[in-house]
Amino acid sequence: MIKIENLKKSFGKNEVLKGISTEIKEKEVIAVIGPSGSGKSTFLRCINRLEEPTSGKITVGGTLITDKNVLKVRENLGMVFQNFNLFPHKTVLENLIYAPMNVKGVSKNKAIEKAEDLLRQVGLFEKRNEYPNRLSGGQKQRVAIARALAMNPTVMLFDEPTSALDPEMVKEVLNVMKSLAESGMTMIIVTHEMGFAREVADRVLFLEGGYLVEDAAPEVFFNSPKSDRARAFLDKVL
Ligand code: ADP
Ligand code: MG
């Protein structure tokens, strides 16, 4: 589904991604783990071209994404950020129907129907007419997930979706992500939630210093990482 070949990205003289290659299959759930500043967000942002790669190739579903119009690339890739990024002056429902109507040309009725289904799925149907500032962090993030799903993406990208949440709200967001994974969605998740990565991910990518240091099944990564760097990282966080 996604093929990444020798992906490099520099900001000025700072080479942040130093040649990353991996493949992600349909329905795979990938956890991207690593210390702060290791290039995790940049990696994710290159996949949906919020950053332009300096070199290397990324294909999604067989299409080279650097050849495509940016909006076309993003239609297939849902993205969820740490800080929700909801439209503050739109209601929950309006947040969900905006892109389907304005980017994809879906009719208002169809967009609302789909949005309401998704809000039921994330447990927030009753909040459909609220504005984001009336919601808790966990509710905002569930709206953000539903909004990304409203575009019918083939892949969902998450950048530390629970890092800005109060601890008691982490679980409700992880549960939504877990059921999405169980429904067969292809997902790439940058996370510090090691328990979640271990339980839900099919594979862990461990980044450090711009290198993909490990690419392994969770039970292998967490129980017997092959690199000293991954072991040192796990010693700190577990
Ligand atoms: P992580 O998500 O793993 O914490 P990032 O991908 O955000 O790491 O950042 C990796 C490095 O790239 C950091 O040194 C950061 O300062 C740098 N960086 C990220 N985005 C930019 C940018 N837009 N301009 C300049 N430097 C950036
Ligand atoms: Mg980051």
Summarize the model shown.
Helices cover 38% and strands 25% of the residues.
Question: What are the defining features of this structure?
Answer:
4-stranded antiparallel sheet; 9 helices; binds adenosine-5'-diphosphate; binds magnesium ion; 25% strand; 38% helix; globular; 238 residues; alpha/beta
Architecture blueprint of SSEs:
Elements: E1 2-11, E2 14-24, E3 29-33, H1 40-47, E4 55-60, E5 63-64, H2 70-75, E6 77-80, H3 92-102, H4 108-121, H5 137-149, E7 155-159, H6 167-182, E8 186-190, H7 194-200, E9 203-208, E10 211-216, H8 218-223, H9 228-237
Parallel strand pairs: 3-8, 3-9, 6-7, 7-8
Antiparallel strand pairs: 1-2, 1-4, 4-5, 9-10
The chain binds adenosine-5'-diphosphate and magnesium ion.
Adenosine-5'-diphosphate (ADP) binds at residues 11, 14, 16, 34, 36-42.
Describe the overall structure.
There is one protein chain. By secondary structure, the protein is an alpha/beta fold. Helices cover 38% and strands 25% of the residues. The chain has 9 helices and 10 strands. It has helices spanning 40-47, 70-75, 92-102, 108-121, 137-149, 167-182, 194-200, 218-223, 228-237, and strands spanning 2-11, 14-24, 29-33, 55-60, 63-64, 77-80, 155-159, 186-190, 203-208, 211-216. The strands form 2 sheets. It has a 6-stranded mixed beta sheet with strand order 6-7-8-3-9-10, with helices on both faces. Strands 2-1-4-5 form a 4-stranded antiparallel beta sheet, with helices on one face. Helix 3 (92-102) crosses helix 4 (108-121). The longest helix has 16 residues, at 167-182. The radius of gyration is 18 Å and the shape is globular. It starts with a strand and ends with a helix. Adenosine-5'-diphosphate is lined by residues 11, 14, 16, 34, 36-42. It holds the Pfam family ABC_tran. Residues 2-234 form the ABC transporter domain. Keywords: ATP-binding, Nucleotide-binding, Transport.
